[in-house]
């Protein structure tokens, strides 16, 4: 049976962020992806300008509730949620998806609490309590905040490994029903470190591991969305008895790193004059063969 | 990587419109920029009371096009189902600008209006498509016979009349593929007939065995694969007559066979029956390897005109 995921994120016509970054890799790995688009933009805002519109909260809700669940009786193996800019839509989808998971515990919800990055909020302030409420309710299986998002959700500022550990512990205290958390793009001392950290923690083991990933001196868009999609596939493809989050995270950060390096390489060949240190679009299609082969892990896990 | 702009419907669940076109093209190495003309929970064959979601308004479409006009030169343009006159006019205006900016791009238009004598768009859509064809900017159209008759302005009851219709439409469009002919043309219940016609050359009839079920999205898959095939033959500067329709039909037949393999034996999809429809969604994902591996190509050629 083909596994089914409902993925609720943004849609850009051009480029690869949100559902455009998540859908193809998941499909290539054999998932039936029901993609519900929270916005339709020409391209992502990182370009400096873009045009488009948001889906209305009531449309998103009726598509899922009246259409997919009640109308077609679809049973999903997984839910994936990302950028959902309208706080009202976030609250409504939050309670609807929570109900779906509560009535069928086989559904695994991977939630990327998209709030912002690098110290900046890029959704409305009202989204913060909405995410907190979703996480408190506890239907989410795995959350993938970045550094700014876990700081916002826990109130703990991360400035070194100790405070990072405090933030992860605090996350488990505040949201005790969430089984797994992976913190991405952790960079407590940006000016002096050559590494980004990625941390994973499982509430039952009382321990957390982290990986040190060499920084690439270029800014990419969509890598977080690609990460959460690949993690969904990799983690849920493990057998439930021998689930190993650190192993899954290592495979995924290794693959994402390879895709970023290949994107950089292609970009450099095509745009020799570009010195901007920012690459707007991941080369997802050029990297498609990498999605179908076994991933060699690149990193070692350290205890946090 | 070649880049295509595809403007057609989006369904959250299932495979029609952009959902049927995008993954196969991506597997073939295309960057697919999908502009969604609607966002529905599922296709309308499930029954209208089972469809939730909204049409993208012409204003919203135009807004997104505005962002795209500054970004790209497209290698190909594809359009399919657009829900109303305003949306067709908006696509027409923007695609003409894009095509003029880059005349070598391949423009495939599927004039989605109806099937089997039934219109499923408003009548005021017809003149929009007719006047768009007259622009002579379109490279390929893929009407079914009903849509061909609408564009031609007359019924087509015989192969001779079909020939006349093709001749007339070739005044504006170099490549015409009629994706399904009416029963009365060949009176052969065992096969579906399609015609490929390149301006200045004899048209070729193809036929494939009929599968007794109701599939949706087949036309959208067909036009996406045909676009790829046309692009490749243009890029290789082959004569346009070298279109590999057999290969396109072979892939489509393979996808249908895989779809049947995955469906329960006793299910035959019927319009308005959600549970049987669900079983007959094209298995676009399971067919991944068909799009790229040179699958054995059958010869579906029936006759030349």
TrEMBL record, chain A:
Task: Tell me the keywords, alphabetical order.
Answer: ATP-binding, Kinase, Nucleotide-binding, Transferase
* Matching Pfam families: Phos_pyr_kin (PF08543)
Q: Which CDD domains match?
A: pyridoxal_pyridoxamine_kinase
GO molecular function, a single term: ATP binding
Q: Which GO terms describe its cellular component?
A: cytosol
GO terms for biological process, alphabetical:
pyridoxal 5'-phosphate salvage
Q: Where is the Pyridoxamine kinase/Phosphomethylpyrimidine kinase domain?
A: 78-268
What's the EC number here?
Answer: 2.7.1.35
Task: Provide the family line.
Answer: Belongs to the pyridoxine kinase family.
The name of this protein is pyridoxal kinase
Q: Which organism is it from?
A: Lachancea dasiensis
TrEMBL record, chain B:
Q: Which InterPro entries match?
A: PM/HMP-P_kinase-1 (IPR013749), PyrdxlKinase (IPR004625), Ribokinase-like (IPR029056)
Q: Which GO terms describe its molecular function?
A: ATP binding; pyridoxal kinase activity
Q: Which UniProt keywords apply?
A: ATP-binding, Kinase, Nucleotide-binding, Transferase
Question: EC?
Answer: 2.7.1.35
Q: Where is the Pyridoxamine kinase/Phosphomethylpyrimidine kinase domain?
A: 74-225
Spell out the Gene3D superfamilies in the cross-references: 3.40.1190.20
Q: Which Pfam families match?
A: Phos_pyr_kin
Task: Return the broad EC class.
Answer: transferase
An example of a Gene Ontology cellular component annotation for this protein is: peroxisome
Biological-process GO terms, alphabetical: pyridoxal 5'-phosphate salvage
Against NCBIfam families, the record matches this protein to: pyridox_kin
What the entry lists under PANTHER family is as follows: PYRIDOXAL KINASE
> What's the family?
Belongs to the pyridoxine kinase family.
Q: What is this protein called?
A: pyridoxal kinase
Question: To which species is this protein native?
Answer: Lachancea dasiensis
